[in-house]
Amino acid sequence: MQKAAELVFIPSPGVGHLASTVEIAKLLVDRDQRLSINVFIMNLPNSDNSKITPTYTRSLDRIKFINLPNQSSDPKTSLISLIESQKPHVKEVVTQSMSLPDSRKLAGFVLDMFCTTMIDVANDFGVPSYIYFTSGAAFLGLMFHAQFLNDEVKKPISDLKDSDTELVVPSLAKPIHAKFLPTPVISVDWAMYLHEQTRRYRTAKGILVNTFAELESYAVDAAASSETEIPSMYPVGPILNLDGDNNYDTSKKAEIMEWLDDQPESSVVFLCFGSMGSFGEDQVKEIACALEQSGQRFLWSLRYSPPKDKDKVVIPRDYDNLTDVLPEGFIDRTVGIGKVIGWAPQVAVLSHKAIGGFVSHCGWNSTLESLWFGVPIATWPMYAEQQFNAFQLVRELGLAVEIKMDYRKDFMTGNAIIVTADEIERGIRCLMERDTDIRKRVKEISEMSRKTLMDGGSSFSSLGRFITDVMDNINP
Q: How far is the CA of 101 from the CAs of 3, 5, 65, 95, 414, in angstroms?
């Protein structure tokens, strides 16, 4: 009889990474009663992630959350140094866990895409490491290709910044123009950091990817046939936190849902730009003008970034008074067709029958949620790998329309170009057209995203292969 196995999960402290990690932990323990999981939770300075726990799982007793001590209150503390400082604490807790009389056999570490330094701790215990990659397979392929070009060909992708070059990437069927490459890949400092992470990926035993083969078939196939050394890939998505709205203000959520209940089916465009998405006053006025000119029903999540405090990253927040930033009379003129809100219960909104399109920053979690609910996207990327996701959705997969695929916002200064009202209006009108090939394709992918997680589906099978591999670690 096979022994029970324990996995150590170490996510990055970002909310999106934490929530996604919790969801895959739930999936694993519900799938196989032999597994238990310890999730180590790190906090960024002046933050508290201790409440990130599963809202429901049949096997909650086999998921344990361990809050690591806050190492610094200095907002300038880097993610690299934060994770590095937690290595002795992780090692101590795992050692204590293994010494308990009823302890399960340690089978491996599952590390967030930015936590590869913890491979050293797994090596100390003589167990393999796996990576949980919370972005898509095509972007993972770009990271491997960028690191290969830098290390082996001596042609770093960062040299392509501001060029007119088109880059052939093994995980994409079409070449990608340099202007659509995300900032972390073309910024020298960030690129060096990503290359180091990717070198460590190559030493892992496998990589779990939050995608599904039907969505990214070209990228998944490319990984399987790669000429360079890449660990086994397990497409196990879409991993979604569909209960993520439970902490949202109940009365505000009820007000939003009641408004949506009064709108015709597939008639509302939803504008929402993620936890870090905000715009300056000039851009807000262009969006407002576009919405008013379009005559389109809309639900707009509008937030602002407070003034910068030295090098501290500030989190956008809701306006106290929306009339301070919106054009004079805008709310009165659009009262019959639109609603402007602050932070949005995104899952509940996207799942509502009134929503017909999503103007999005193209974060991977938001992308998967939108596809899950069959809502087409208009791309407006900002940070991280979002420009790449936008290119993939529009040009590679035919699942989205463009507002501004090469839009990017400086994370520290907030500087960005202004997207005009005409550009925004054109994108919204295209997004909300009925009976388009994009809308049909999104509906097909939505159905596939659900089937892939069912018994016999590709992601279901892929997760099963991962579990078999984990159990082989303790039952060779």
A: 14, 14, 20, 12, 53
